[in-house]
Specification:
By secondary structure, the protein is of the alpha/beta class. It folds into two domains: 2-276, Rossmann fold, CATH 3.40.50; 282-464, no CATH class. It is built from twelve helices and 23 strands. Helix 5 (147-152) links the parallel strand 7 (134-139) and strand 8. The mean pLDDT is 97.
Length: 495
């Protein structure tokens, strides 16, 4: 029986969020606890375990998992602590032998001193276990796959859908690639084309947008050519690191020319869609006008302050605009505001008092003063609608102020579904207006039943107006930060 270790390290960061993330933001699981947490869930680990548990010739061993909500850049000393924990967990398995290691990563981490922590982890594990064990990994399509990462692990699978609905499938595909590495005499060769463009907006939705056509082209080309895998990664435009860009990749079994030709074919014309693949935003004034016109149910997406993309989640800009305009429709909104939650706990359920919402993390945001009743207090533990796993927003408070209901959390959490609302007894379908702090959500969560869904041009660390954020590290020129019309494709080969 071949022994396959499973390790996970996942976080996506925005370099423009002034609040640094720490080890305390991560949920860490060891060994059997990791298996109990993720087995049977719609996650990378859940999908990988289903495949590996069903293989008769391998023993999958959950070793270590550290996952966090997207956030600001990770403090480097905390990354080093996570790295030590991961390496210690792998080291403890050395005596019994290791045939393969499956890495479940995101790909868009960054620390205050390391722009490629995933590459650093892969290299460190390789140095620890030696050249023999096979490496494979899963990645988010918003990851920034670096040369260091490919050199250390040239066998990988990525998400294929956005909004993401294939976490388990991607983990399963990565696990099947690991099985092939152990059962067959494979020699992965990776061809990579880096395309100087950053993208955002509805054209990135794989089911309906341009991006989906290119991802489908990659999947089809991999099947027709017998490639190990092929993908199109669009990166996270808010992770300001040297290799940030879109990229097309193909993995062949020892045939560099085949991988090269596949990449060129898949990427053909992609750069021409650079303008189309930007966000279509409505102004704050137009969003308020929609609220006044009664275009209900109305979903106002505040993607500029999306915790799932790395923002702090404490902007009350949309709340302020709606209240200032005397909108009388019922409003449901989330906000990250630890001081407000702490005050609500001090006052207790049923007490009415003045609160200042927002601006507790990112000082660019002005707080909004409201007189509100503490309607509910909670420990912030709830089950994720998307994955079926448990999440924690820290202590939370539900506040009611006239037509406004706010769910205030102590810490940022993923807000691309309705979990936080459901966990506090509220259903967005019962409100006229819902503020959603995510660029895109699965269609069934909001779009399927809302009358109007718009992305609002607000301020924040994950604004779709990426040219305004202040990138300093990514290679230039790159669109839309720079007005470039052409580029010369250069294929990199990794053997």
């Amino acid at each position: 029986m071949k022994r396959i270790l499973i390790v996970a390290l996942q976080q996506e960061v925005s370099s423009f969020n002034p609040v640094r993330s720490t080890r305390a933001d991560f949920e860490e699981h060891l060994a059997q606890n990791m298996r109990q947490t993720f087995a049977g869930t719609d996650t990378y680990a859940g999908g990988a375990l289903k495949v590996l548990d069903g293989a008769e010739d391998v023993t999958p061993i959950c070793v270590y998992s550290a996952t966090a909500c997207s956030a600001g850049t990770l403090q480097h000393e905390d990354f080093l602590a996570l790295k030590t924990a991961l390496l210690d967990a792998v080291r403890a398995q050395l005596a019994d032998g290791i045939d393969g290691i499956l890495f479940l990563l995101h790909g868009a981490m960054a620390t205050t001193a390391e722009t490629d922590p995933e590459g650093d982890i892969l290299e460190a594990v390789r140095a620890l276990v030696g050249p023999k064990p096979a490496f494979a990994m899963s990645l988010d399509l918003h990851g920034i796959l670096t040369a260091r990462m490919i050199a250390a692990c040239p066998a990988f699978e990525t998400l294929r859908t956005y909004p993401h609905v294939d976490f388990a499938d991607t983990g399963a595909r990565a696990a099947r690639m690991m099985l092939r590495l152990l059962r067959e005499d494979l020699s992965p060769v990776v061809a990579r084309l880096r395309i100087p463009m950053l993208v955002r907006g509805d054209a990135c939705i794989t089911e309906t947008g341009i991006y989906g056509q290119y991802m489908a082209r990659a999947v089809a080309r991999a099947a027709s050519d017998g490639l190990l895998a092929a993908t199109v990664m669009i990166g996270n435009p808010f992770t300001d690191v040297p290799e940030l860009c879109c990229q097309v990749l193909a993995i062949s079994d020892g045939d560099a020319e085949k991988a090269d030709a596949a990449v060129r074919d898949i990427a053909d014309g992609f750069f021409d869609h650079r303008a189309t693949m930007q966000a279509d935003l409505v102004s704050l004034n137009d969003a308020v006008a929609l609220a006044r016109d009664g275009r209900f149910p109305l979903i106002l997406k505040d993607a500029a302050d999306a915790p799932s993309s790395g923002a702090s989640g404490d902007s009350a800009e949309l709340i302020h605009a709606l209240l200032d305009a005397d909108v009388t429709a019922t409003i449901l909104a989330p906000i990250v505001d630890a001081p407000t939650v702490a005050r609500a706990f001090e006052l207790g359920v049923g007490v009415t008092a003045c609160f200042h919402l927002g601006g507790s993390c990112d000082r660019r945001f002005a707080p909004v003063r409201v007189k509100a009743k503490v309607a509910m207090l909670s420990d912030g533990h709830y089950r994720m609608e998307t994955w079926g796993t448990w999440d924690s927003a820290g202590p939370c408070a539900k506040l009611r102020s006239g037509n406004l209901t706010v769910i205030a959390s102590t810490r940022p959490v993923q807000l691309f579904d309705r979990s936080l609302f459901f966990g506090h007894g509220e259903d967005p379908r019962d409100f006229d207006i819902t503020v959603v702090k995510s660029p895109h959500c699965q269609h069934r969560y909001f779009d399927a039943w809302a009358d109007t869904v718009v992305s609002v041009d607000a301020q924040g660390a994950t604004s779709a107006r990426v040219e305004t954020l202040g990138h300093k590290l990514c290679q230039r020129p790159i669109y839309p930060l720079d007005p470039i019309d052409t580029f010369t494709p250069q294929i990199e080969i990794f053997r």
